[in-house]
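Try it yourself: sequence plus pyridoxal-5'-phosphate, in.
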Amino acid sequence: MGKLQQRLSQVQAQIRSFALSCDRDPTGIRLIAVSKTRPASDIRQAFEAGQSAFAENYLQDALQKIPALQDCNIEWHFIGRIQSNKTRAIAEHFSWVHTLASFKHARRLDEQRPAALPPLNICIQLNLTGEQSKGGIAAAALPSLLEKLAGLPHLHLRGLMTMPPATASAAQQRQVFAQLRRLRDDMNRQGHALDTLSMGMSGDMQAAICEGATMVRIGTAIFGPRT
Ligand SMILES: *Cc1c(COP(=O)(O)O)cnc(C)c1O
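Structure, out:
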């Protein structure tokens, strides 16, 4: 087995054991491989080892890799910061967006989603700790954004996404993830149908899984350190 394959199956085993350790069904957690900065050849290797969902942050890079991997049946997730002049390409080339944080961007993605494609799956990014360096909306802004998104037929609202501060302790990570889960539960009690919690990276996967993650976004643990 190659190194990449080995790391991929290690991560799969970790997801399973973290899930079981907190009484969750491991099949309720999807692994999204974060392939930012990696060459298409790495993505192809991971795909051939069975990984089918990949996430990219940098649109220009992604637009090089996506056509090069057209023969692979990859589900592409966009997890970078959204800019207005990039929404068309995002709407055309991705199945999921995890980082929606404004109605303006939502409206553009909705208008620009090609009619031949299914609705674009959307997670709203929450910034629960007020870090300036991170995108996302405050929890207080979520209800009104959700109301407005309901009127956009080419978007399929799936759930919420967040990232704890890089320096957070395991206990702090869990607090942030638990807060996202409670927000999702509150919104569902108000009539929404959010089925996705996109939370957990290489350094905080265990905390995220134990607080209810349904998608983990893992880069380093699969592909090795980024240079
Ligand atoms: C880079 C990145 C990840 C993956 O981080 P790793 O620590 O490499 O697993 C996940 N989510 C987002 C939004 C990222 O930018």
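One thing you can check immediately is this: The chain has one domain: 3-223.
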